[in-house]
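Reposting from the mailing list since nobody answered there.

I have sequence plus structure tokens for a pair of proteins and want to know whether others read the tokens the same way I do. The first protein:
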Amino acid sequence: MDTSQESTISSATAAAEVEFSVVDELPVYVKELIAGGAAGAFAKTAVAPLERLKILMQTRTEGFKSLGILESLRQLKQHEGFLGFYKGNGASVLRIIPYAALHYMTYEQYRCWILNNYSSLVSGPFVDLLAGSASGGTAVLCTYPLDLARTKLAYQVNNPGKLGNEARMFNPKTSYTGIVDVFKKVYMEGGMRSLFRGVGPTLVGIIPYAGLKFYIYEDLKSRVPEQYEKSVVLRLSCGALAGLFGQTLTYPLDVIRRQMQVQTQQLNHLGGPCINGTLQGFSYILQTQGWRQLFAGLSLNYIKVVPSVAIGFTAYDSMKTLLRVPPREKPSSASAAST
């Protein structure tokens, strides 16, 4: 009996040691990539139905103008079934895994680089603002074609004939069967440049948004009493506030980006001239669709962004703990010690 117990204990100890060594052998940036990718996929899938509905509201002025959130969800379910809520989510998850992985990892790397090279000029939460902005731009440039594919797929609605007079608003001129088909048709339409249509307003929007998001989240977290630092509820609350504030300031740029993504090379999705830039997009939407369209889907985005950003930050912190990523040095205490 004693021998069998000793054997079981030794086997468990050996397995734990193997697991410990495998995780600890990974470089820190690889752990950050894994933590960021997992957090992004989990958060994005949790809010996929709301993301789909938000895109439809942003890109079809009349189609969803008079419908509330619940009625729009019912209409989608009626025409496409439950899986309709997740149309484009495959492309979304494929995009968000590398995007979130790069976003979080480059944020940590930029943050370390700034602190190591410019600590005399930049300190406190301002470091998170700069690092978050730079990481957001880096992640967008590396994964933008996947975001374009996700929007093209989510823009499609099946059985447009059943939707009556507004069928044309629901049915794009080009239909796509999947991510590869989107890439193929968009590339044939305008070459490599067309795969980055809308990247301008995306960068203009994501750079301040990503910076503000990290700035607010880290600043709020630093104000939490030490005994509550591991509280999931408080982390969720900090992430929710960070996402809400950042989205409110940059939301119109997201609307312009979506409309640029669903247009063709010659015409936009409403049959008018193409939107070729951020300022032109502002002007065109204000003149033809009204200022309210710049905030179309914002109420839904508030509902979506609260769980999405909150879950993302909380999952990332939890994954870092699980992967035993070493805690960061606190710049404030370091600078205080030097003075």
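The second protein, same order (residues first, tokens after):
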Amino acid sequence: MENRNHVTEFILLGLSKNKKIQILCFLFFLLCYLAIWLGNLIIMTSITCSQLINQPMYFFLNYLALSGLLYTSTVTPKLMTDLLTEKKVISYKNCMTQLFTTHFFGGVEVFIITGMAYDRYVAVCKPLHYAILMNRQKCNSILRASCAGGFLHSLGLFLHTIFLPFCGPNEIDHYFCDVYPLLKLACTDTHKIGFLVIANSGLMGLVIFMVLMASYFMILYNVRAYSAKNRHKALSTCSSHITVVILFFAPVIFVYIRPATTLPEDKVFTLFYTIIVPMLNPLIYTLRNTEMKNAIKKVWCTGRFWKGIPMI
């Protein structure tokens, strides 16, 4: 693909040209990235080393933490490196790779969140059939479908972009390679491709968001018949899920639902679903979750995890 383009590398304009702001941003994102690693690793280890891994909700939460960690890792390290360098350059091949991997792991995360919503819907609305509908085989099928859905979503955007000619300029007004900033640089009419991107990302995000919110409203409606204790538990779990859904999907819909244009606000909204949400997920899913907090105490405070590590 490089041979048909005059552009072999792109310059990322980043978040700001002010050196002091860049240093402050670097320190902030460094702390965020460390928190993302620490929080998600604690969740994955606590679930894997406890009986929670046998419960569908925590089975999905384990992989949501993993996908969130991989998702932010496609963007954050490069962003932090660029904040400390004068020339923020990314090669054409690395740019296309970043575009594909970012949307792949982002797509997987979206579909896992959808799987978690389905799990909660079955648990609340069809409790007698829960063990049959959400057995381990079904959970594995949902996980495989999430990976396939993320792959198809990412492949569609990748194929729309990889065949575009880039003749110059090569400055991307963003902090990573995303589809809309790249369409803006293409040496051809991209209006039709822009509508395909809206269908692939914007409308897909909007439809999934509406389905998720509808499922949670049905759950909230059905928990009225529960006892006070079970109602509180269901509401606590659903409120955590709804918070994640809103924080993730609202910025995604804002960025991708409109025609192929870029706005200065896009960078701020993109930070939410690439860095802020993966950092907040561990807190959101643990602060109001008694089972998760108990698992963390058992695994980390009683030494269950450390006993499994061989002494040197």
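Reply #1 (J.P.):
I read it the same way you do. The chain is about 75% helix and 5% strand.
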